[in-house]
Specification:
Belongs to the xylose isomerase family. Its cofactor is Mg(2+). Homotetramer. It is a single chain. The chain folds into two domains: about 350 residues, TIM Barrel (Alpha-Beta Barrel), CATH 3.20.20; about 40 residues, no CATH class. The chain has 16 helices and twelve strands. Helix 3 packs parallel to helix 5, helix 5 runs parallel beside helix 6 and helix 10 runs parallel beside helix 11. The protein is of the alpha/beta class. Strands 3-4-5-6-8-10-11-12 form an eight-stranded parallel beta barrel, surrounded by five helices. Strands 1-2 form a two-stranded antiparallel sheet. A two-stranded antiparallel ribbon has the order 7-9.
């Protein structure tokens, strides 16, 4: 085992402790009949934690990691370090893209062999580790071949390359017992309509997704297929803009019963929504799957992928998750990266420890709110009028009949308060 993290040992729960310890995340604490670890289902993002070099749009690498470099020796060392950190944190899950774990080969076949070797290393390490695979995915956006998209690319050879890449990643996810497989269309969109046939590209995207679903059933993969919505960046407009847009695509291609969504906090904000809005909508449509937990810098206006630190914001997200029954195959993936000035190995562990504490505080508050019942009681009271026979009849009636009732009964409704501030005060008592 690597000792990249020096003498850092397993992080313990110690509310009064000093240094690196969990002050709120007690994995064995019972909340609504389940252990906290089982509710939160934390995962480490392999790409941000071990592959990201510390750059930003205006500057390059700041991190100096011994495994950096496009070599298999580096990839093997990276796997050692990853499982070292999983053990330190006691993480139940991790997630990866193919390009995170292996160097690019001179040919597709060489890249595949490199990938399969590291997947075998993962399988070996997982035999003695508690850490499991929450989901795998394919990087179909970083390499220059994907500059015009993957499934939506105008070049059919890129479509084929992308399909082959997804196949190998699905095979690996299946082999490692992954609980989901994620599709993130980082460049499935357009830069300008001047050179874009949008109808053709949407058809290609739908066909690609149908092929993925068909292959899932062919190989007997029992996990969920997830799509991750994002409105923009790097493209001007991405076709998987938000939950509502993705659901429309799924309905168009008859896949709304086959595919669910992996919702990211930062992407929800970029789409002009709140995180809890996107989760609640996915729950209402029956397509909620999993979450990427992070945050944006609200002054920067772009996807900064910072670790979460806002307990009220997190609590409202987990409230919607718990109200919908909690995670099934999904979990809380920290799709978050260090700031480029945070250079030390300890910084990486500390970032996860702090984020796990924030999420624990948020979920506990959400559970208390749900069990307290004030919000749900207020919601039921607001819609109570719809429980009357007359109101229910309107939902199966016609326009003329409803209009006639207004005059016959002399209806003249008075508006009632939505009590928003009172409800916000309720939330504030918990968080």
């Amino acid at each position: 085992m690597s000792r990249f993290f020096g003498d850092l040992g397993p992080i313990r729960f110690d509310p009064q402790g000093e240094g690196l310890c969990f002050r709120h995340y007690d994995p064995d604490r019972m909340v609504m009949g389940k252990r906290l670890e089982e509710h939160l289902r934390f995962a480490v993002a392999y790409w941000h934690s071990f592959a990201w070099p510390g750059g930003d749009p205006f500057g390059g690498q700041t991190f100096d990691r011994p495994w950096f470099g496009d070599t298999m020796d580096g990839a093997r060392m990276k796997a050692e370090v990853a499982f070292e950190m999983f053990e330190i944190l006691g993480q139940p899950f991790f997630c990866f893209h193919d390009a995170d774990i292996r160097p690019e080969g001179a040919t597709f076949a060489e890249s595949r062999r490199n990938f399969e070797e590291i997947v075998d290393i993962f399988a070996s390490k997982m035999e003695t580790s508690k850490t499991r695979l929450l989901w795998g995915t394919a990087n179909l956006f970083s390499h220059r071949r994907f500059m015009s998209g993957a499934a939506t690319n105008p070049d059919p050879d890129v479509f084929a390359w992308s399909a082959a890449t997804v196949k190998q990643c699905m095979d690996a996810t299946h082999k490692l017992g992954g609980e989901n497989y994620v599709l993130w269309g980082g460049r499935e969109g357009y830069e300008t309509l001047l050179n874009t046939d949008m109808g053709r590209e949407l058809d290609q995207m739908g066909r690609f997704l149908s092929m993925v679903v068909d292959y899932k059933h062919k190989i007997g993969f029992e996990g969920a297929i997830l799509i991750e919505p994002k409105p923009q960046e790097p493209t001007k407009h991405q076709y998987d803009y938000d939950v509502a847009t993705v659901y429309g695509h799924l309905q168009r291609f008859g896949l709304e019963k086959e595919v669910k969504l992996n919702i990211e906090q930062g992407h929800a904000i970029l789409a002009g929504h709140s995180f809890e809005h996107e989760i609640a909508l996915a729950q209402a449509l029956g397509v909620f799957g999993s979450i990427d937990m992070n945050r944006n810098d609200y002054q920067s206006g772009w996807d900064t992928d910072q670790f979460p630190n806002n307990v009220p914001e997190v609590a409202l997200a987990y409230y919607e998750i718990l109200k919908g029954g909690g995670f099934a195959s999904g979990g809380t993936n920290f799709d978050a990266k260090l700031r480029r000035q945070s250079l030390d190995p300890e910084d990486l562990v500390a970032a996860h420890v702090g984020a796990m504490d924030v999420c624990a505080r948020g979920l506990i508050a959400a559970a208390d709110m749900l069990e307290g019942g004030e919000l749900e009681a207020a919601r039921r009271a607001r819609y109570a009028g719809w429980e009357t026979p007359e109101a229910q009849a309107m939902l199966t009636s016609d326009l003329e009949t409803v209009a006639a009732r207004v005059e016959a009964e002399g209806l003249d409704p008075e508006p009632r308060s939505g009590r928003q501030e009172i409800l916000e005060n309720v939330v504030n008592r918990y968080v």
